[in-house]
Amino acid sequence: MLTEPISIVLVESQPIMRTALSTAISKEGIRVLAEIADNRDALPVASRLTPDLLLFSVNAPNLRDLSRITVLRQELPDTSIVALVTGEFSDQSQLALDYGAHLVLTKAAPRSEILNALKMVSQQRDRVLY
């Protein structure tokens, strides 16, 4: 059975982090459709590209970023949202879930944990949608 690779749009404001994430994800056969620096661009880009996943960095502590998750969830119901938060703001994880993220990871998570989480969320999405 041939399966399509997971497609993702990466939203991260820090260039070095964006490059590192994109490189790590791509090496695992996950297609990075776009890298976005400004999360205000996430909706128009993701609407056009229709990724399986949106890896969305939340700049802590920023409620504007969290409220964008709600809008993205409403406008892109077939796209799973994985929020990336900084470890110093532990309350941000629960807030991201409350605002609609499917999963929350800290930016300090090991590469393998991030990759496994993306694959897990994608598999759950496939089970729910199909």
Keywords:
5 strands, 130 residues, Rossmann fold, alpha/beta
Describe it:
This protein is an alpha/beta fold. The chain has a single domain, classed as Response regulator (Rossmann fold). Helices cover 46% and strands 20% of the residues. The protein is built from five helices and five strands, in the order E-H-E-H-E-H-E-H-E-H. The protein has helices spanning 15-26, 42-49, 63-75, 91-98, 111-129; strands at 7-11, 31-36, 53-57, 80-85, 103-106. Strands 2-1-3-4-5 form a five-stranded parallel β-sheet, sandwiched between helices. The chain starts with 6 loop residues before the first strand and ends with a helix. The relative contact order is 0.16. The model has no long low-confidence stretch (mean pLDDT 86).
Average pLDDT metric: 86
Secondary-structure-derived class: alpha/beta
What is the N-to-C succession of helices and strands?
Answer: EHEHEHEHEH
User: What CATH architecture do you see?
Assistant: 3-Layer(aba) Sandwich
Number of helices: 5
Sheet with the most strands: spatial strand order: 2-1-3-4-5
What is the fold-level CATH name, i.e. the topology?
Rossmann fold
CATH superfamily: Response regulator
Domain tally: 1
Spans with pLDDT under 50 lasting ≥5 residues? Answer: none
Shape: globular
**For the record, what CATH class applies?**
Alpha Beta
Major sheet summary line: 5 strands, parallel
Bin the helical content: 40-55%
